[in-house]
Amino acid sequence: MNFRNWIGRSVTRGDMLTRRLYDEFRATMGPCLFEAGEDIAPPGLHFGLAPVTPGAGETGPDGAELKGLFLPPIAQTRRMWAGGSIESFRPLRHGAAVVRTSAITGIQQKHGKSGAFCLVSVTHDIGDGGGPAIRERQDLVFRDPPRHAAPAPGPAEPLAADWQVDATPLLLFRFSAFTFNGHRIHYDRRHAEAEGYPNLVVHGPLQASLMLNLAAGRLGHVPRRFDYRCLAPLFAGARFGVAWDAGRLRVIRSDGVTTAEGQVHVRETG
Predict the structure, then answer these.
(1) Can you tell me the mean pLDDT for 152-165?
(2) Phi, psi for residue 135 in degrees, rounded to 5
(3) How far apart are CA 173 and CA 27, in angstroms?
């Protein structure tokens, strides 16, 4: 089915950057947080601003917002986070009245090794009374359920990483709650297994937030642009690493598999 007429559809939502949001994000991220100032939102907090808030009758079997409301009515039932890009123009501050406008900017029907899939890109423009602050592109993949379950991670290996994070169910629950993400693969193990995963799945945006905060800490400021992509699923139940190497970042599963990678673009280089 051709969904070209869905490109350009947009929705605008408002929110307030409250102390509670900041405290929830800080509690979720723990020590993996870049703090630029007491009243400045740390990198990644925007994932919890003005989220999609579907009613109970507006969600699908997977717990996410029904397709056909904002996203097109794609037939493939399995949704995954493929990656994205985050541009930071200036910081958001505590108490700001924030507006987020989300628009569908790309829909591509593709075919890969595992079959047909649909790639949907959504661009979010986030700002306050001072003007634009963040522009983010999110790439979402929709595909049919897999013929075979995803293999469990292999034996654990020593992690050579700047940060080591325990992928506990509590961490996943907190990030789901902070972003109002109802996708059941992050908190309902039975559903995750029904989708072919051996355990709960760690959010793509959580991995992006960790890489972005590590980058900001290494640079001493939030990078002008951060591009990232998800390469393999990351599961709850084991420790994983977040590593920096001269502007390149990786999230590393306990068995050594890279699940996400990122690249920063700093102000000096454009």
Answers:
(1) 93
(2) -125, 125
(3) 12
